[in-house]
Design a protein that fits this description.
Layout lengths: L1 H24 L3 H28 L6 H27 L5 H12 L1 H7 L1
Helix pairs in contact: 1-2, 1-4, 1-5, 2-3, 2-4
């Protein structure tokens, strides 16, 4: 799990930097910051998943399902809270950049865990 989490966080960071860099090049500084925050929210949720998974540890035959559920619920809860905070405090025109970077960074799961 540790190597996959490291690859996931690196890929999420790279995707976020590409999106934010493109927005910065277009000259829209507030939206670039919003994109960075959206990618950071996705990376924080992934990190919470990894920490929750690690804290559950190994156990019996029923333990892997419980470990996955606890880790996944903590990731989803963190993502919902961070998305809510971001949408509440960012300007309205930065919402697309925030949500777009978040969605793109979350799609990194597919790339890391499938390949």
């Amino acid at each position: 799990m540790g190597r996959q989490l490291t690859r996931l966080l690196a890929l999420q960071g790279a995707i976020t930097m590409v999106i934010a860099g493109a927005i910065f090049v277009l000259g829209n500084f507030p939206n670039g910051i919003a994109a960075l925050l959206g990618g950071a929210a996705a990376a924080a949720a992934a990190l919470v998943y990894g920490v929750a998974y690690w804290l559950q540890g190994a156990g019996g035959s029923a333990r892997p399902l419980r470990t996955f559920l606890v880790a996944e619920l903590s990731r989803i809860g963190t993502a919902v809270v961070l998305l809510g905070l971001g949408m509440a405090f960012l300007p309205a025109d930065a919402a697309i950049a925030y949500l777009g970077a978040f969605a793109a960074a979350v799609m990194a799961y597919l790339l890391v865990f499938l390949f």
